[in-house]
Amino acid sequence: MNSEHYLQSLRVTAASALLALAALGCNSSSKAPSSPTAGTSKSTPHAELEPCVDYAQKICEKSGPESPTCASFKTATQLLSAETCRTGLRDLPHSFGQLAAVRRPCDNLVKNLCEAIGSNTKTCDFVKSQGKLFPVEHCEMMQQQLPQVISDLKKREAANQPLAAEVTTALAQGSVVGFGPSDAKVKVVEFADFECPFCSRAADVVQTIRTKYADRVQFVFRQFPLAMHPDAQLAAQAALAANAQGKFWEFHDRLFQNQRTLGRASLDEYAKQLQLDTAEFKRSLDEKKFAAQVESDMKLGERANVQGTPTLFINGKRVDNPSDAAEVEAAIEGALHSVTSG
Fold first, then answer.
1. Number of C-alpha atoms within 13 angstroms, CB side, residue 61?
2. pTM of whole model > 0.85?
3. CA 261, CA 242: separation in Å to the nearest integer?
4. Is the same domain home to 12 and 108?
5. pLDDT, tens digit, for every residue of 307-339?
6. What residues contact 28, with CB distance under 8 A and at least 6 apart?
7. N or C: which end of the chain has fewer CB within 10 A?
8. 138 and 235, same domain (yes or no)
9. CA distances (Å), 202 to each of 172, 310, 320, in order?
10. Beta pairing class for 217-223 and 317-318
11. Cβ atoms within 10 A of the Cβ of 223, count?
């Protein structure tokens, strides 16, 4: 698991410890507003809830609307009386002080991580933004595993750096699958896994690149089947077998349209549907004719610090979100401008 997936996985659990902020007045007699009765205005339930809604909003503004603190406090204020929430609103500095004390393990974690990886790095910015979303108990857990977390983040930061010139050159050399002129000044290289759902989204971006830039950029598709996907390795070989018969992109599209059915029988069926020479196709898979080419792509990906899929490079610079067409187009336009103005 790469560092981004590792960090994102730590957001899942809500921070129940933050319910302690409700200590300003939660009591056993508190209850949800009852239905209106005779002589009670129909607006009373809303009026009774308003102080607690405001109280929760103030805490969420301070802690961040996506933070576990915000979610926990919204739940907690549902248990409080309107008067208790009014008291809390009158004494917000106390609540903010308590909030800072509760979040201190996460603040310390972010400080330690940024000092280790560099305060001016993209990874530090990532940690600062995501640290607000970490449950406190997970911050404490990561603090106990600080050397490993720092090691993972340093790998992430290394992956953010532009590739060495020799690696950038190697990405677009050899027996490549792709489109566009081989002498193009802008080279776009994708590492993908046919069983990866995020890669299917990136496939739409590739189609956009093909439509808008095929005459100005060279696009190279590299195989990077992940071990976690049982059918990805054979699917990669099958795509290369289709490429040998001039139908890589048709097969590429068929695989991404049918990601849940990539077993051998399905691959043979897709070859038949696309009117490939099925005997040759089957022989290629039986004899693992393209296994070495898949392995070569994966080794090249390792040289380029590819840790997950999809990974996209434009002239050796990694694109943060290869599934976002607007971001990829902006990066291509920037690269085209750079090579023409330079």
1. 8
2. no
3. 17
4. yes
5. 899 999 999 999 988 999 999 999 999 999 999
6. none
7. C
8. no
9. 19, 7, 12
10. unpaired
11. 26
